[in-house]
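Quick sanity check, Gliding motility-associated C-terminal domain-containing protein:
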Amino acid sequence: MLLTTLRYCLLILLAGAGSVMGQNLVPNPGFEDIKKPQCDFTRQNENVSEYIVDWYAPTAGTPDIWSAAGILPQNCQQRLDQVEPQPRTGSKCLGVYTYVARTGSYREYIQVKLKQPLKQGATYYAEMYVLLLDRSPGGTSTEVTSNTASNNLGLFFSVNPVGIRTGPVNFGYVLTGTPQINRTELVRDTRQWVKVSACFVAEAAYSYLTIGNFFADAQTRLQVVTADLPRNAAYYLIDDVSVTEVFDRIPVADLGADTTLCAGQSVALDLPDSVNTAFRWQDGTTRARYLIRQTGVYSVTATRGICSVSDSLRVEVEPAISLPADTVLCQGEQLVLRANHPLDAYLWSTGSTSSQLSVTTKGEYVLTIPSRYCLITDTIRVDVVDCPGPIPNVFTPNGDGRNETFYIDNIQFLPWRLSVYNRSGQRVYQTEAYTNDWDGANLPTGLYYYRLQNTRLRRELKGWVELMR
């Protein structure tokens, strides 16, 4: 398939120095505004909304509020002691399970109604900070024990609230939805808060934000970070959630699907260049134009202000197939043609579908590699001739009219160079096209060594002959 154009999908948004940013649309973004202190873990049939303003658990899962050291009495489970990580800012943060090893997936989520709906088609920047809690705070509780890192910490925006259920039914079930922002890399840090952020375009008037893992266990990457803890689970602290509108942006370009090129083809990726946009390709190059000639995954990150958006494209280049050069066989010889191609499918003009073909007769042999995209074919022409032989090992130029010359059958069909040497290695005769006329001239009786060469057949015959007078 000949490709003449390739479209790109790359959303590059403008925000940063000189850009205008809106207010944070998340109420109580650092979880500081509480209704009452939470001293113990949230229990089943209880909702974290009983303790915190604006936020709530949209399922029967049980998120928890955590407080900095010294905020709660010493006997409270929900305090972060001095040896534990502290809230990123302020004195509060919130914790959720993104994975628990048990029968059936278990998740916890937190949800909030935004201060105002997002504008459809407008660009927004959202972020939150997360931290893996890899052991029981203070080493005194086993109720929240986390020894596993996960990915898929996501922010999901929706027009309506999602998954509101209470009681033991569907306790901790996985919410369905595709988060607009999702951390696909593992979050393993237990001491430094990790930012999860991205820019996105609101496809509707979203009014609700839900945070958690929206993927089943099979689609979630996991890694044990503390092997000596008894429970395989991933528990994360969350702090400082924000959603702000970005008022400056540049247009969206379309990518299209992964594609296939044929051997010898290339394609140029041309991104909309701008003095305010920085590009970085997978190999570190930074130009807006990128030329592809070989198979690979090509990715680019475009950054403008605080917004970075990445996209990738997989390109497969189907190689050509190459048979040997046209050749000539001697009668009775066999040529084995062997093919090797990544598609591992073959069709010869003889009807064979094997990767190799044995040739013994004159003809034109065509190999085609079946492909949905490219014409992959090559041809070899084979000629079959009578080659010299048999070659005598004695001739008698004695004038009796019999066996007077060094006579070789079938020598006349192709030009063969004949070189003759005596026992000392001196050349005593040579011709470019032997015609069975060498009679030894005035050479004495003895053994002579010959070499027959043919460039078309790309072969050489060697031997000896006895001259007897």
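Posting the structure with no commentary besides this: Residues 1-18, 136-142 have pLDDT under 50 and may be disordered.
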